[in-house]
Amino acid sequence: MKRPEPIQVVKQRRDAALRALVDGVPYIRFLGIAFDRRGDELTGVLHYDEKLIGNPGLPALHGGATAAFLEVTATMTLCWATLWDDLEAGRIDVATLSASQPTRLPKTIDFTVDYLRSGLPRDSYARARVNRSGRRYASVHVEGWQDNRDRLFAQATGHFLMPPRA
Known about the structure:
Radius of gyration: 17 Å
Strand order of the largest sheet: 1-2-6-7-8-5
Shape: globular
Distance between the termini: 30 Å
Number of helices: 3
Mean pLDDT: 90
Largest sheet: 6 strands, antiparallel
Low-confidence stretches: none
Helix content: 25-40%
Strand content: 25-35%
Number of strands: 8
Structural class: alpha+beta
């Protein structure tokens, strides 16, 4: 009987896979987005930066920055869900994932954002839920908040064309 891998090895493999996935998209670095991983669940973190302010009079986050943050979180969550299955089943070797050969990302078909209140000049968080993911199409809902998880400042629904699986 094969012994299970030590949990540290499993965590390192998962973290390396997430890092390779995120590093493959330079726009994520430009916006200052990071991802917090707990098991198979991702939380996007948009670190506050002055360049993200759209209305300095309030000040409020730019709607485009908010929409981009939600779309990136939806896309990465969708990729992570697909990658997770392959990673856990041993079909993907983390060493083959790299920024030089990024994972093919789903293409956005449409993305609808509901701006519920102004985004304040502070860190923002988002979590996505994959409603449906098939071979060709996926539907994702994503929610964004700042200080209180129950007080959303934006939410969105997106539909994506899935890349062919290897």
